[in-house]
Amino acid sequence: MVGNSFGEVFRITTWGESHGKAIGVIIDGCPAGLHLDKGYIQKELDRRRTGQSEVTSPRKESDKVEILSGVFEGKTTGTPLSLMVENKDIDSSGYERFKDLFRPGHADYTYQTKYGIRDFRGGGRSSARETVGRVAAGAVAKKVLGLENIKIMGYTLQIGSIKAKKIDLSETEKNEVRCPDRDAGKEMIKRILEVKRSGDSIGGIVELIVTGVIPGLGEPVFDKLDGDIARAMLSIGAVKGIEIGAGFDVATFLGSQNNDEFYNNKGTIATRTNNSGGILGGISTGEEIKIRIAVKPTPSISKTQKTVNITGEDSTIVIHGRHDPCICPRIIPVAEAMMALVLTDHLLRNKLARIS
Amino acid sequence: MVGNSFGEVFRITTWGESHGKAIGVIIDGCPAGLHLDKGYIQKELDRRRTGQSEVTSPRKESDKVEILSGVFEGKTTGTPLSLMVENKDIDSSGYERFKDLFRPGHADYTYQTKYGIRDFRGGGRSSARETVGRVAAGAVAKKVLGLENIKIMGYTLQIGSIKAKKIDLSETEKNEVRCPDRDAGKEMIKRILEVKRSGDSIGGIVELIVTGVIPGLGEPVFDKLDGDIARAMLSIGAVKGIEIGAGFDVATFLGSQNNDEFYNNKGTIATRTNNSGGILGGISTGEEIKIRIAVKPTPSISKTQKTVNITGEDSTIVIHGRHDPCICPRIIPVAEAMMALVLTDHLLRNKLARIS
Amino acid sequence: MVGNSFGEVFRITTWGESHGKAIGVIIDGCPAGLHLDKGYIQKELDRRRTGQSEVTSPRKESDKVEILSGVFEGKTTGTPLSLMVENKDIDSSGYERFKDLFRPGHADYTYQTKYGIRDFRGGGRSSARETVGRVAAGAVAKKVLGLENIKIMGYTLQIGSIKAKKIDLSETEKNEVRCPDRDAGKEMIKRILEVKRSGDSIGGIVELIVTGVIPGLGEPVFDKLDGDIARAMLSIGAVKGIEIGAGFDVATFLGSQNNDEFYNNKGTIATRTNNSGGILGGISTGEEIKIRIAVKPTPSISKTQKTVNITGEDSTIVIHGRHDPCICPRIIPVAEAMMALVLTDHLLRNKLARIS
Amino acid sequence: MVGNSFGEVFRITTWGESHGKAIGVIIDGCPAGLHLDKGYIQKELDRRRTGQSEVTSPRKESDKVEILSGVFEGKTTGTPLSLMVENKDIDSSGYERFKDLFRPGHADYTYQTKYGIRDFRGGGRSSARETVGRVAAGAVAKKVLGLENIKIMGYTLQIGSIKAKKIDLSETEKNEVRCPDRDAGKEMIKRILEVKRSGDSIGGIVELIVTGVIPGLGEPVFDKLDGDIARAMLSIGAVKGIEIGAGFDVATFLGSQNNDEFYNNKGTIATRTNNSGGILGGISTGEEIKIRIAVKPTPSISKTQKTVNITGEDSTIVIHGRHDPCICPRIIPVAEAMMALVLTDHLLRNKLARIS
Fold first, then answer.
1. How many Å apart are CA B30 and CA B36, to the nearest integer?
2. What is the ipTM for the molecules in this complex?
3. If DSSP codes are grouped into helix, strand and coil, which group holds residue D145?
4. Position D54 confidence tier, pLDDT thresholds 50, 70, 90
5. Beta-carbon contacts of residue C299 (< 8 Å; ≥ 6 apart)
6. How many CA atoms lie within 13 A of B109 on its CB side?
7. How confident is the model at residue A55 (pLDDT cuts 50, 70, 90)?
8. Taking a C-beta distance cutoff of 8 angstroms, is the pair D297, D161 a contact?
9. In the prediction, which pLDDT does B1 show?
10. Which end of chain A is more exposed for a tag (fewer CB within 10 A), N or C?
């Protein structure tokens, strides 16, 4: 019931603050017998790391993960996995200034109001740094999904008004914005740098597709697969909207347009279109799962903004610091991790659906 | 962990199938001492009932609610509330035909695949009739919220390509599509009837606003208020997308545009804009909560559709029955109920945030 | 988190008060495909019914169960089962007198203090009548266990100072106190009637054994099988203690006495003794599970007792009504039901222990 | 649902193996604003440490706790507390021998059977070392309880057949077996050393009392206070039974003996006797809570025992190592911690019982 855990049977609990000693995650419910090593998890962490390029934050964290429990002789044992990353490049000096000010678009005001106290250094718990634990846990989840050949791929679909015009997944990891359209990617980078120079930030849209999905994942009526995916995505700080399949386009569709007709595809039941995004009645159909998320511009900008201080007096604020001018490229591994966590949880839960 | 419960401390469990004997909900965790009577709940149920107008399904259910437990001398006692509605106007004969066919856009195929069995009569558990329990429970939740003057209002923003051009909340309940723009409402009704005559259905967009919200609702980092709202909305059968505040528009925004600046509003901290939709860092700010949901066209249409039967053979299907040509008007009380459940749950949870 | 649910993946929620309209249970998480009919559940309910003999309460309830949802064509569908029993023989008149008095040994005082309100009629929610739902759900659980040949048998081991001297399980259901020793059973009945005549009640000890248990049930370190059994048993109103295996005798044992040595029993790993009661490290060993529970004398007695009223003034009370002079015989089906629920839950959860 | 978490709103998750790098606990749901420092937690850890005396295991662990998150400027912030203790004095060499053998009375066989793999070094996850995390979390819980003047005191009541004849709580922490009767304590120590010399171990009984309890703690009907205490106690490795209040003595009691009559004690409702152990209907009465637990003799003994190996072949085993000849003295801080966790959880949950 408490807020820092996610998942029912493959359950993670993240802990740690941006400028604390370390940050980490506990995974409880990982099945025994899964091959797991540190190097594998490290690779996923490296994908979300800061300092990757000039379009990301320059904070220099090596983000070296340690496995403190739950693995013996290279395999999971069914006991909790404790994964930890030490915070190294901490520079809290710049935050003293914001101690009594509420940064617009950030969680400073709401944390202070809810708890009566907040660790203001680097955003404390509400920092994107918290997602280190998610990505580490997501790597383990991806390993479970890999046993079933389920694969998750995320990419940047749009930055500002620049849209990818084609989806070539082999391009995604080759450019700094993770755009599956190389040319659009170049434009996106250009636009981000422009915005960055002006002391501003910019939003975008990220799409995720999942292939190899097994029909049957999802537990009606409240733990629907799409509902759980939505909650997972909205749990990422910058996300303000989500679409499944045709998403908001369904508003203008007729039923005869929107319904995905079934047909026999060489012995397998399939649909010709996929407006449902691979989910019907909250349960996976076996078709590709496809979702899109709206990513807001990073709230930390160096332009002067109006705000109030902790006693409610009007004030202004200028935020210099190590921030991402556009969070899309680095949100992708986090969104993939959350998707992996949802799917793994439902994959396991689905084992209980029938008398066997 | 099982799928038919919603909420952590104000927890509901719905049960029942479309053509079973009855349908109902258990509410556990409702605080003791709340004044509650059957008539009050009945009013909310009447708002979602079928047969209200020619734009809704003609199934004639009086939907009379009974309170079987948890209330004594007009007040809740802290023990579970059991609310039940009998199914009266059941006509399963028309469904025998679909017994072995998978209706496109419905959950027939996924339920059959997941469970190896399904109650095909009227969609069984996946029928919109399940939402009777949600609305009944939502009425109780609204009562709890009412003690704090928190108020939820839903309305139809768009049907097909017809959009409300103004928001006059006093109009909403006066027209059959629950549109806050009377003129747009008329056009919407016309369009729905046109589509209905052609044997088709149509989608739309519903918006919800919540006023009187207290700052502090939401539990980071995974039980964020927006995440829980998203899950709640996506748990409604026809919903394919959700936006919080500015939603997908944030993709094109700069940080300086999107950030809601704080100011001192006669002694209260407030924001001048509300792109965040009243939620920052997963916690309510106290501003109006605003969300929009994408509602797909009802999948039951009387046009001929291609599909497969239970053994995977290609076939066709024509669905005559008692269906809503557009589900937007009747989804509103359901969406409001889900919003009420999320907010009540978080309102109670927030009492535990601090040492007092 | 709310208190009226039990189980994690095979989850029940009971509802209803002693003198309300009905009483019932929702089972969520019952696997699809289980054969189930009303008559089967009815048999278990009949075992806990009042009015069975002169050693039980004379309240005349036929306790006819209805299955309102979750079963289609004789099989479970994976959706929630709603089981309901109407309250028929309600006579609340006798309780008006106790409206403002706290009956010693009952939950009147604690409910009133916690909730500020209580349904005083027949004990309201804290009545043993609530266990109707448990027994109905337990019957379903027993059906799941039956597929694995797991069998639960409860019996009365002791009433007052009269102890069973032998365990002949074929005798248990043949006598009114469910004693596996026919002669001791006769003495027990005699003693109960004697106590009843004097306006008093008496306690006892009930033992449960489970055969056919599969090794591996139980989830360390907090959801241990023995811990969950203990909680289940203590959730029954009259239970004040529990022992697993050798129980309190271990206090005087040496390690060399207490340890159950393993040996190869024709190809299966077994233990020669069973002081552990079939559970090691919170996980079933495959040996017989054996537990004992301490059952307090029914608090409703017709002797004059001192007490206070709702405003705290000293007073006296005499309780005439329809009560069991000894609850042991009727607690047995309830204890078996709770055991069945714990085991079914862990049987299902154990399917997730390993990569398969 | 997964097994390594305890508590609903004050929720802990322990992690770590006996011979892993570290061991720890996450506390989620600790209210913000609680004063907390490392030194305070350390004191409780020191009470459970090995190497305290010749009646405890000689393993030399300093058990220095680190607070990795959740505390800022000396106060909790409402975010997860991560507490960690490094394992220093690890000597796994002695365990290689037991790699393929199942130690009688230990969880080796059940872990191996359930998970197909186990960390055999020092018992791995099933080691008593796991309780470090519990005691650290329990210290935090005690701090919350302290704000309400709720106090928990545990002591050794019996070792083998030697019983405390008087309860002088000021004596408890002065002797090595934590016996509240100084003379009995001396005899107990003598007996333990005797047993130790013979290569054996011995059991006992530990009692806990809680003073200052507020009426109203506990959530019927399944999350009863006594049920949750029972589960908490049985989750401790060596515990095989629990009694609440009069416990198994109720079997021989008449109702008129067992019922605790209420009276007005200078304006407060109280009971003259306390057979109920301070709990009625699963809710605290405000009287002292009193429970007793049966503690089995440590299964690690140096006498030759029969057992089987991993392939099921008969074998023998002799366990030399660093073990407690009697675990009672060191189980006390663990049992107190578990009691503190249960009470804190229910103290917080009780805030939600009524409309306020």
1. 11
2. 0.98
3. helix
4. confident
5. C103, C104, C105, C106, C201, D255, D258, D259
6. 28
7. confident
8. no
9. 60
10. C
Return the residue matching tokens 């990617």.
Answer: A185
Calpha distance D156→D172 (Å, rounded): 8
CA D241/CA C226 separation, integer angstroms: 9
Tokens of C326: 């000894």
Which token pair is A280? 């019907």
Q: What are phi and psi of C154, to 5 degrees?
A: -115, 150
B65-69 and B81-86 strand pairing: antiparallel
Nearest to B336 by CA among B241, B181, B235, B210: B210
* SS3 assignment, position C144: helix
pLDDT 10s digits, B22-44 = 999 999 999 999 999 999 999 99
Amino acid letter at A111?
Y
| Residue D54, C-beta contacts closer than 8 angstroms, at least 6 positions apart | D176, D193
Q: Is this prediction's pTM over 0.95?
A: yes
Is-contact C91 B7, C-beta < 8 A?
no
Contact residues, chain C, for D242 at CB < 8 Å: 230, 241-242
Which residues are within 8 A (CB) of D313 and not within 5 positions of it... i.e. 6 or more apart? C264
Give yes or no for residue B350 having a pLDDT over 70: yes
**DSSP β-bridge partners for residue D155:** D207
- Cα A270 to Cα A286: distance, rounded to the nearest angstrom: 8
Q: How confident is the model at residue B230 (pLDDT cuts 50, 70, 90)?
A: very high
Alpha-carbon gap: A217 to the closest alpha carbon of chain C (Å): 13
State pLDDT tens for residues C75-91.
999 999 999 999 987 77
% of chain C with per-residue pLDDT over 70: 100
Q: Name the residue in chain C with its Cα closest to that of A77.
A: C354
Strand partners, B69: B82
Tens-place pLDDT, residues B75-121: 999 999 999 999 987 777 878 888 999 999 999 999 999 999 999 99
Yes or no: say if C3 and D281 are a contact pair by the CB < 8 Å rule.
no
Rounded to 5 degrees, what are φ and ψ at B239?
-85, 130
Tell me the C-alpha distance between A264 and A269, whole Å: 5
Confidence of residue C93 (pLDDT cuts 50, 70, 90): confident
What's the domain count of chain B? 1
Q: In chain B, which residues touch D (CB < 8 A)?
A: 1, 9, 29, 31-34, 78-79, 144, 147, 220, 348, 351-356
**Which range marks the domain in which residue C45 is found?**
5-352
Of C1, C80, C125, the CB nearest to B13: C80
Which residues in chain C touch residue D255, judged by CB atoms under 8 angstroms apart? 105, 200-202, 297-301, 303
Size of interface B-C (CB pairs under 8 A): 151
> Nearest CA of chain C to the CA of D237: how many Å?
6
Residue B37 parent element (H or E): none
For residue B322, pLDDT over 80 is answered with no
User: CA-to-CA distance for B189 and B187, rounded, in angstroms?
Assistant: 5
Closest partner CB to B355 (pick from D33, D220, D352): D33
Cis peptide bond prior to A135, omega within 30° of 0? no
**pLDDT reported for residue C90:** 76
Report the SS3 class of residue C83.
strand
